[in-house]
Specification:
Blueprint: E1 13-17, H1 22-33, E2 37-42, H2 45-57, E3 61-66, H3 72-86, E4 91-94, H4 109-137, E5 141-146, H5 159-179, E6 184-191, H6 197-202, H7 207-215, H8 225-236, E7 247-250
Parallel strand pairs: 1-2, 1-4, 2-3, 4-5, 5-6, 6-7
Helix pairs in contact: 1-2, 1-8, 3-4, 4-5
The structure holds ligand 8Z2 and NADPH dihydro-nicotinamide-adenine-dinucleotide phosphate.
Transmembrane segments: 228-250
EC number: 1.3.1.38
Pfam family, one: adh_short_C2
Amino acid sequence: MNVFQAGLFEGKVVLITGGGTGIGRALALAFGELGAMVVIAARREGPLSGVVKTIEDRGGRACMYTLDVRDEARVEEVVRGIWQDVGGVDVLVNNAGGNFMSPAVAMSAHGFRTVLDINLVGTFLMSQAVGRRWLDEGREGSIVNISATNAEYGSPLMAHSGASKAGINNLTQTLAVEWGGTGVRVNAVLPGPVRTEGSDERLWTDAALVERVEEGIPLGRFTTPRDVVGVVVFLASEAGAFLTGSLIALDGGERLRSLIF
Ligand SMILES: CCCCCCCCC/C=C/C(=O)SCCNC(=O)CCNC(=O)[C@H](O)C(C)(C)COP(=O)(O)OP(=O)(O)OC[C@H]1O[C@@H](n2cnc3c(N)ncnc32)[C@H](O)[C@@H]1OP(=O)(O)O
Ligand SMILES: NC(=O)C1=CN([C@@H]2O[C@H](COP(=O)(O)OP(=O)(O)OC[C@H]3O[C@@H](n4cnc5c(N)ncnc54)[C@H](OP(=O)(O)O)[C@@H]3O)[C@@H](O)[C@H]2O)C=CC1
């Protein structure tokens, strides 16, 4: 994104969970182009290695770890490894997420817990493993959580996702207060619907629904990964230095559509 200064993240390490596909991939490529050492972490090796290769082919630096953000021991092992291998983390983007569509009455408890575990518990575990080290070292850092606008209103067919993202919003504000004293900032971006590999496979399979949702967006289109990149880079940069505990909706006005009559 050429609105940002070249080399803006030179000397910084940016850790992105779920960096192999969708929004995470777009973030990884953007931070790579801005000079960061990019560390991506998710379950599948294939998408991760593709992103590392693309960043390196473009002259950037990147590495990858396989992990499940629900696995507390593995999260700790990976974060310890990152500190040993590249000297720590300056920016953590909690992007890994899961979702599927199901009426609440049909959703199994395991299905509900699965999405809560990935989105909310995963964000907590990653933030804790990184934040604990920042606090021990008296080091500044920035966390950007990828939440969603469904955190702010009813989330039909996505009860698990809406509840998890509302939890992420609250966690964002709690950690901002607890960790602000050492210069750690914690913010969240709340995208509206975004067309990605993961969401096209699970959410946006009904063409009529896609059309209806898109028509209801005041700015006339879905949020794009590129839109998310702009706000995340801004929050993680010096331009966002006095922002903490902020929840930034990024949806072209979609969440306000019911106010139009
Ligand atoms: C309009 C305005 C817009 C509003 C604004 C926009 C809001 C959008 C906000 C968010 C969007 C996104 O997150 S889009 C991100 C999409 N990307 C992803 O989801 C990628 C990662 N996803 C995954 O890995 C999987 O889909 C997920 C199920 C979450 C986790 O996989 P796991 O292998 O860990 O889990 P599994 O063992 O397969 O499944 C766990 C349980 O969940 C159940 N389960 C799984 N899929 C199911 C399904 N389709 N329907 C019912 N139940 C399902 C299984 O049956 C299991 O329950 P039992 O049978 O009881 O055992
Ligand atoms: N698409 C949309 O409409 C919206 C998406 N969001 C949020 O944006 C984020 C990215 O989603 P998006 O790019 O659309 O979807 P994708 O499915 O493309 O990306 C999600 C990524 O998360 C990783 N991931 C999922 N579960 C785990 C896990 N347990 N441990 C580690 N990594 C995991 C996946 O990699 P792997 O499978 O290899 O582990 C995948 O790369 C999510 O938090 C999502 O909730 C928010 C609002 C709207």
